[in-house]
Amino acid sequence: MNGINVDINHLKKGEVNLGTSIMAVKFDGGVILGADSRTTTGAYIANRVTDKLTQVHGTVWCCRSGSAADTQAVADIVKYHLELYEAQHGAPPTTKIAASLFQELCYNNKDALTAGIICAGYDDKEKGAIYSIPIGGSIHKQEYAIAGSGSTFIYGYCNKNFKSNMTRDETVEFIKTSLSQAIKWDGSSGGVIRMVVLTASGVERLVFYPEDYVNA
Amino acid sequence: MSNPASINGGSAVAMVGKDCVAIACDLRLGNQSLGVANNFEKVFQFGHVFLGLTGLATDVITLNETFRFKTNLYKMREERDIEPETFANLVSTSLYEKRFGPYFVGPIVAGINSKTNQPFICSFDSIGCIDYSKDFAVVGTASDQLYGMCEGLYEPNLSPDDLFETISQALLNANDRDALSGWGAAVYIITKDKISKRYLKSRQD
Amino acid sequence: MAGLSFDNHQRNQFLSAKGFGSPKATSTGTTIVGVKFEGGVVIAADTRATSGPIVADKNCEKLHRLSPTIWCAGAGTAADTEMVTQLIGSNLELHAMSTERKPRVVTALTMLKQHLFKYQGHIGAYLIVGGVDPTGAHLFSIHAHGSTDIGFYQSLGSGSLAAMAVLESNWKEGLTKEEAMKLCTEAIEAGIWNDLGSGSNVDLCVMEVGKDAQLYRNYLKPNVREAKVKSYKFARGTTAVLKESIYNLVDIEETVVPMEVDTEA
């Protein structure tokens, strides 16, 4: 490794991968995260009902892509720090704080990690916020974010169809159609579409089965 | 042949009989195909427990000394000899300690528990996984042949004298089909109050 | 002294470089499964251990106890599943004693996944963890790299595909204990018959809320060896003996008798 070219192919042979299509979208009331539910070991589907949307604190969540082991470990560490943060500060952490923790862990351990994370949440300061933290450990604040192997198929669609300040229902539909296309074209993505709606009123979880989204 | 455990060659086998156990080994030590010594015994005694150690000779010697050291300390602390079951766990943990830089050995343990008088045998892989057995255990470069011989010849509840014939024939005939084992054999027949050790007449090629 | 020692690592690397590779460790080719039911969970395993193409153990135990109510089925490198399970079992008991609470399945899960993640997959343990605790019944699976999955039914090991085929077609919601035991047995049997790495018998462990775990060792034995029709006993004296030495084990009793000492003069 020379610091510029990072060879990610030498990492982790035969381990569990989140092939994945994940995304997060801001809307007028907050933010919605969405993900497929497929995890694979090679060509075998190790889990067809995976939950790739992980709570790290209250209304701050993340979408995980890459190595299942790495992203779970990172999410567990962030979760621990945020719990400690609230105990010490007497106030819940913001999405930005969570995202910074993810970014720092992913950057400092970039040689050992295969983790692509979207950190999104709702807090009183920033309202809805989305931070994308791709493989090298950089951080990008976005209005909406897509990631994972399936995301390559929906860059165009999302770019054309995303609108700022959509309603909740419009956003759910947008994510549903986007992910249904990602799932359709990407072999490493599949199963159900899971979502989590993060607003001032808290957390709401949604599941869409194949029959609910194939014609979305 | 590209395996460190088969540079020096050698095999061992243990069997359970009626109120007795047997453990046997060949006597060859080689350097690949060159025979070097015909008096390299691979069965060692710690109190009333017997340990067969096959594999890389340097590790066989090192581990024998390690276990002599550990069982002597055990005897001083506990004021009694180590039992076969306990010794098996000692072997297991000692080998697993070297999980990422293993000793290239194939150990077997045989003995009779002095409290319960129950015969006990087991074998291990090189990183300490215990393979408990009710009938027979085999290790070494002739292990494939020994598996075949034992599956064919073994029967339960053999008397010490019959067990001697069965284990000896199993070892001898397995060794005759392994270029790296042979050059003599030693057989221990163990009962609760008697140990007999016999050197067998065998092919010398 | 404590922990793993890397003393021989450099020597073995040198040996590898010279063309003397590593010997094969015993692997549990294995089919293992776990199924949740109303008020509990059951895990099951086959009993074959292999070393390359050789069946090393025809009736090994792949169901390990982490605590009296939390059990774990192991696939992968046999020594690793055994040792990691013993280590976490010990730490779980110490943790239970210091917190004065019954151990929880998620605690076992977290300890296992953090340990395995630390070793980056080099500890080849693939586990299905099931158990009951004050929180209820739980079922998880763990891969060697440290990732975990949750579900109503799980399968792992080389026979997991055969087992999963049975689970996917026969699993339904709200199974009874007996139905879950039957489903597990059938899934393991699928592995025993259709996977070369799995074989022999079915071991089963049932954990019910509010009860002690029940281990059914060799719950099903579909591969009993036929008794030999003839005896292969050799006539005494078949084997030629060069030298014989006999050691009689005798009890030595030592009694100390005080000497009479003349105190006069």
Automatic annotation (TrEMBL), chain A:
Gene Ontology MF, one: threonine-type endopeptidase activity
Entry GO terms, CC: cytoplasm; nucleus; proteasome core complex, beta-subunit complex
UniProtKB keywords: Cytoplasm, Hydrolase, Nucleus, Protease, Proteasome, Threonine protease, Zymogen
PANTHER family linked to this entry: ATP-DEPENDENT PROTEASE SUBUNIT HSLV, METALLOPROTEASE TLDD
InterPro entries found in the cross-reference section: Ntn_hydrolases_N, Pept_T1A_subB, Proteasome_bsu_CS, Proteasome_sua/b, Proteasome_suB-type
Function: Component of the proteasome, a multicatalytic proteinase complex which is characterized by its ability to cleave peptides with Arg, Phe, Tyr, Leu, and Glu adjacent to the leaving group at neutral or slightly basic pH. The proteasome has an ATP-dependent proteolytic activity.
Record's keyword annotation contains Protease: yes
Subunit structure: Component of the proteasome complex.
Subcellular location: Cytoplasm; Nucleus
Name of the featured protein: Proteasome subunit beta
Family per record: Belongs to the peptidase T1B family.
A Gene Ontology biological process term: proteasomal ubiquitin-independent protein catabolic process
Active site: 20 (nucleophile)
Source organism (scientific name): Komagataella phaffii (strain ATCC 76273 / CBS 7435 / CECT 11047 / NRRL Y-11430 / Wegner 21-1)
Substrates-to-products reaction catalysed: Cleavage of peptide bonds with very broad specificity
Heme keyword on record: no
Main subcellular location: cytoplasm
TrEMBL record, chain B:
InterPro entries registered for this protein in UniProt: Ntn_hydrolases_N, Proteasome_beta_3, Proteasome_bsu_CS, Proteasome_sua/b, Proteasome_suB-type
Superkingdom, natural source: Eukaryota
Transmembrane segments: none
GO terms of molecular function: endopeptidase activator activity
Cited Gene3D superfamilies: Glutamine Phosphoribosylpyrophosphate, subunit 1, domain 1 (3.60.20.10)
Predominant location category: cytoplasm
Cellular component terms per the entry's GO annotation: cytoplasm; nucleus; proteasome core complex, beta-subunit complex
Keyword annotations of the record: Cytoplasm, Nucleus, Proteasome
Location of the protein in the cell: Cytoplasm; Nucleus
GO terms (BP aspect): proteasomal ubiquitin-independent protein catabolic process; proteasome-mediated ubiquitin-dependent protein catabolic process
Assembly with partners or alone: The 26S proteasome consists of a 20S proteasome core and two 19S regulatory subunits. The 20S proteasome core is composed of 28 subunits that are arranged in four stacked rings, resulting in a barrel-shaped structure. The two end rings are each formed by seven alpha subunits, and the two central rings are each formed by seven beta subunits. The catalytic chamber with the active sites is on the inside of the barrel.
Function: Component of the proteasome, a multicatalytic proteinase complex which is characterized by its ability to cleave peptides with Arg, Phe, Tyr, Leu, and Glu adjacent to the leaving group at neutral or slightly basic pH. The proteasome has an ATP-dependent proteolytic activity.
Protein family (similarity comment): Belongs to the peptidase T1B family.
Name of this protein: Proteasome subunit beta
Species of the source: Komagataella phaffii (strain GS115 / ATCC 20864) (Yeast)
Organism placement in taxonomy: Eukaryota, Fungi, Dikarya, Ascomycota, Saccharomycotina
Automatic annotation (TrEMBL), chain C:
Function: Component of the proteasome, a multicatalytic proteinase complex which is characterized by its ability to cleave peptides with Arg, Phe, Tyr, Leu, and Glu adjacent to the leaving group at neutral or slightly basic pH. The proteasome has an ATP-dependent proteolytic activity.
Record-linked Pfam families: Pr_beta_C, Proteasome
Catalytic residues, chain numbering: 30
Listed GO CC annotations: nucleus; proteasome core complex, beta-subunit complex; proteasome storage granule
InterPro entries attached to this UniProt entry: Ntn_hydrolases_N, Pept_T1A_subB, Proteasome_bsu_C, Proteasome_bsu_CS, Proteasome_sua/b, Proteasome_suB-type
UniProt KW keywords: Cytoplasm, Hydrolase, Nucleus, Protease, Proteasome, Threonine protease
Entry protein name: Proteasome subunit beta
Proteasome beta subunit C-terminal domain: residues covered: 222-257
Keyword Chaperone in annotation: no
Protein species of origin: Komagataella phaffii (strain GS115 / ATCC 20864) (Yeast)
Main subcellular location: cytoplasm
Family, as annotated: Belongs to the peptidase T1B family.
SUPFAM superfamilies: N-terminal nucleophile aminohydrolases (Ntn hydrolases) (SSF56235)
PANTHER family reported in the protein's UniProt record: METALLOPROTEASE TLDD, PROTEASOME SUBUNIT BETA TYPE-7
Molecular-function GO terms, alphabetical: threonine-type endopeptidase activity
Record carries keyword Hydrolase: yes
Reactions catalysed: Cleavage of peptide bonds with very broad specificity
Origin superkingdom: Eukaryota
BP GO terms, sorted: proteasomal ubiquitin-independent protein catabolic process; proteasome-mediated ubiquitin-dependent protein catabolic process
Quaternary structure annotation from Swiss-Prot or TrEMBL: Component of the proteasome complex.
Location of the protein in the cell: Cytoplasm; Nucleus
